[in-house]
Amino acid sequence: MTTFPPIRAFGISVLGSAGVVGALIGLSARTVLGNAFAGIQVAFSDGLHVGDVVVIEGEWGRVEEVKLTNVVVRLWDDRVLILPTMYFTERPFQNWSRHEPRVVGKVQIHVDHTADLEDLRTETQRLVESSPLWDRRRWVLQMVDATAASVVIEVQATAADGASAWDLRCDLREGLIGYIRDNHPQWLPRTRSEYKP
Q: Which of the 8 DSSP states describes residue 85?
């Protein structure tokens, strides 16, 4: 078509159109094929199963379906997150239940420097041991940081799965804050100022 002058313009436009169409088909096929290959990779890498508890960009949920091209995750608040399978081969995610569903729940609380950690350990022990969400494996209260205004205590307690760990964390946080507020309000963080004459 490009050899004959009367139809050369038509031939060039057809070739140009074919190139654009071919590029578009190639781009769309790349995504589909990429997801299919990612699905095969996820299946053989054994990194994700139905029922696993995962954390994806700060949101945790349970895997409901693993398909060749997408993964369905039911989030903690009952929203459904549908991700292309390539997401799990290109980005990091946490799998809390890959080998076992048990997880450690962590709670951090800021308290004043005058807080008695042994008193807080006793109350934490009472709260943890009275909770049906604690799996009876281990718990600990530690000072993990100190700033000019406060110290940071962290409570770690084990739970049977991600959902139980979340609820246990909320219960411990609520219980400790309530205990400090009602029994030792002077341990709550406060801003100090120093007067220099």
A: T
CA distance 7 to 149: 82
Q: Which residues contact 160 (CB under 8 A, 6 or more apart)?
A: 101, 102, 133, 135
pTM of the shown model: 0.57
Q: Say yes or no to pLDDT of 168 above 60.
A: yes
Helices 162-183, 117-129: crossing angle, 10 deg rounding: 130
Polymer length in residues for the chain: 197
Check: CB of residue 187 under 8 Å from CB of residue 114: yes
Q: Indicate the residue type of 75.
A: L
**Strand, coil or helix: what is 94?**
strand
Rama region for 47: left / alpha / beta (φ>0; ψ in -120 to 50; rest): alpha
Q: What is the DSSP string of 58-71?
A: TEEEEEEEE-SSEE
pLDDT at 184 over 90: yes
The answer to whether residues 53 and 96 touch, using CB atoms and an 8 Å cutoff, is yes
Task: Name the one residue in this structure whose structure tokens are 């398909």.
Answer: 67
Q: How far is CA 94 from CA 54, 79, 97, in A?
A: 5, 18, 9
Model confidence pLDDT, tens digit, residues 80-99:
988 888 888 788 888 776 65
DSSP 20-60: HHHHHHHHHHHHHHHHHHHHHHHHHHT---TT-EEEETTEE
